[in-house]
Amino acid sequence: MQIQIDQVSKRYSKKSYGLHKVSFNIGPGLCGLIGRNGAGKTTLMRIIAGIMEATAGTVYFDGQTMKSAAMQRHLQKRIGYLPQDFGFYPRLTVKETMDYIAMLHGLSGKTKQTRIQDSLEKVHLDKQADKKVRELSGGMKRRLGIAQAIIHEPEILIVDEPTTGVDPEERISIRNLLTEYAGQRIVILSTHIIEDIAQSCQQVAVLDQGTLKYQGDIGSMIKAVSGMVWECTLPITEDYKSMLTEFTLVSNHYMGDSVRLRLLGEKAPKADSIQAAPTAEDAYIWMIGGLAP
Ligand SMILES: Nc1ncnc2c1ncn2[C@@H]1O[C@H](COP(=O)(O)OP(=O)(O)OP(=O)(O)O)[C@@H](O)[C@H]1O
Hints:
With 293 residues, the protein is an alpha/beta fold. The chain has 2 domains: 3-217, P-loop containing nucleotide triphosphate hydrolases (Rossmann fold), CATH 3.40.50.300; 227-277. It has helices at 41-49, 69-76, 94-104, 109-122, 138-150, 168-182, 194-200, 218-223, 280-287; strands at 3-11, 17-26, 29-34, 56-61, 79-82, 156-160, 186-191, 203-208, 211-217, 229-235, 248-255, 258-264, 274-275. The mean pLDDT is 94. The strands form 3 sheets. It has a 6-stranded mixed beta sheet, sandwiched between helices. Helix 3 packs across helix 4 and helix 4 crosses helix 5. The chain is globular, with a radius of gyration of 22 Å. It contains 9 helices and 13 strands. The site of adenosine-5'-triphosphate (ATP) has 11 residues, from helix 1. Residues 12, 16, 18, 35, 37-43 line the site of adenosine-5'-triphosphate. Keywords: ATP-binding, Nucleotide-binding, Transport. Belongs to the ABC transporter superfamily.
């Protein structure tokens, strides 16, 4: 399966674009969408999932589109979607929740039982099957959200910010189960956390204010800032803010009476600056034109 996003725009009002002429292809594996709040990640995921219509442009699934209702139904059967704010019924148990979702997918009998069991095992929630949803931790609820999204074994899984607000161990666990699910399927996840992308995604798309800033593999993204990452130390009495007209700040670590800066720029910020090995975070900050003030 290949997804081709072709010149997709979403206009919410005369002045506001959620997305503006976004084009790129997504192949099998894990694809990370990254960008700050309001970048357009949710808008793009909803359009791919067929929940929202683009104002202009087309999404192709192996050359097919959702333009007709019949084709939309056909393609949506191959897509699983977990929105950011999935509403569960707190009084249902994990198994009852899955049972309900399975019925919505038209599953019944032995197939239904097998799919529920398989999905819960994949997200490591099979031991919690009889627990009420309200008794689950935030991370467990995310995993239940993924389980409901994969119950019909979709070829494309779309998950909106699955790792936000969960502890580091749970984040890694969620990342790993998405990687396992991907295999030859397409998994698209959105995140604010560059580490999640760097550690698990073969493909990355950086969105900013509705436009695509980068699309490709993480290694090439990092290479794009090679030779542009600098570290230098200044006394805290020196105001480094004036340097930020020419350089992009990645981090500032205060250590006693000095501050260690990590900056991005074409040339060394100071004579004694040291060139540093670029990271995914450096590349991301460069691509979105620096951190918000
Ligand atoms: N229903 C809507 N009506 C009007 N504007 C909207 C609507 N939904 C989104 N927007 C605007 O479109 C832009 C993109 O929003 P979107 O939710 O896709 O971004 P996002 O990258 O998912 O953000 P976040 O990380 O905060 O979830 C934002 O400026 C947002 O305010």
